Amino acid sequence: MKNVTDSFVSLGHWPSAGSFGFNTDILATNPINLSVVLGVLIFFGKGVLNDLLDNRKQRILSTIRNSEELRRGAIEQLERARARLQKMEMEADEYRMNGYSEIEREKVNLINATSYSLEQLENYKNETLQFEQQRAINQVRQQVFQQALQRALGTLSICLNSELHFRTINANIGILGAMEEITD
């Protein structure tokens, strides 16, 4: 095996006098080799690369179209949601206004009912006060009348003797007789 390796190594040291051999000068052979490889790759790989790029382009375009459709769908859903939101806000405002109107109406009704109740209570109070005043006046009158009657009876019993008593009875009988004659 050592002989085979030695033969390849010795080939690199042969002079390039028109014979076939390996050129080990990297600077001289690299650009030529690279241009040959690139030329072959471009010539044979051009179709494959174009197909890959076309497929990639088609996938990107379809992704863009799908994104546009999704965006349009999202915009439509957003518009529907906005319209629904606006409708709900209008209904909420209407309910709020109706609620405020109902509250105001109930407030006015409550104020009116309370005012009416207060008027009735005031009237009942005034009637009760008048009744109690009248009752107190009547009690005072009755007491005054009782006291006056007792004084009059006391005064009469002291001042009246039987003769004065007899004359008073006759005078009253005369007055009654005169009234009887007038009515006939």
Features:
single chain; 184 residues; mainly alpha; chloroplast
Topology:
Layout: H1 2-11, H2 26-159, H3 162-183
Concise overview:
The protein is mainly α.
Main sheet overview: none
| Count of DSSP strands | 0
Cα distance spanning the termini: 188 Å
Beta-strand share of residues: under 5%
Helical residue percent band:
over 70%
Low-confidence stretches: 4-16
Shape: rod-shaped
SS class? mainly alpha
Q: What is the succession of H and E elements?
A: HHH
| Tally of individual helices | 3
Mean pLDDT: 82
What is the CA-atom radius of gyration, in angstroms?
Answer: 68 Å
Coiled coil: 64-98
Subcellular location: Membrane; Plastid, Chloroplast thylakoid membrane
InterPro entries: ATP_synth_b/b'su_bac/chlpt
Keywords: ATP synthesis, CF(0), Chloroplast, Coiled coil, Hydrogen ion transport, Ion transport, Membrane, Plastid, Thylakoid, Transmembrane, Transmembrane helix, Transport
Description:
The protein has a domain at 35-133. It is 90% helix and 0% strand. With 184 residues, the protein is mainly alpha-helical. Residues 4-16 have low confidence and may be disordered. Residues 64-98 form a coiled coil. Its main location: membrane.
